[in-house]
Design a protein that fits this description.
The chain is mostly helical. Helix content is about 55%, strand content about 0%. The protein is built from five helices and no strands. Helix 2 crosses helix 3. It is globular. It starts with 11 loop residues before the first helix and ends in a 12-residue tail after the last helix.
Length: about 90
């Protein structure tokens, strides 16, 4: 079962608007998106040929902006039960 079909990514303007609404720095947006740093985030928001934000990254962003801490912790717990290991660092926008 696919949860998302016919995905069209947000535009660079959409991503800039989100950054502005959150009043986040490029580094904070990178952390929210789970990418390595502000240089990586900029690849989605500018340049001659910006990268399209894939649905997995957008889902990750949306989940953090929508779910409360208890729900996020439940997902992280499930990830561990599925075999992953990580340190959690919940961002509270």
């Amino acid at each position: 079962m696919r949860l998302i079909e016919n995905y069209v990514p947000p535009s660079t303007d959409d991503l800039a608007d989100l950054k502005g609404k959150l009043r986040f720095t490029g580094q904070q947006m990178a952390e929210l998106a789970g990418v390595s740093g502000s240089n990586q985030w900029r690849k989605y928001t500018g340049g001659e040929k910006p990268r399209e934000l894939n649905q997995h990254i957008l889902f990750f962003i949306a989940a953090q902006l929508t779910l409360d801490q208890k729900e996020l912790l439940s997902i992280l717990d499930k990830m561990r039960k599925l075999g992953s290991e990580f340190e959690e660092n919940l961002i509270q926008p």
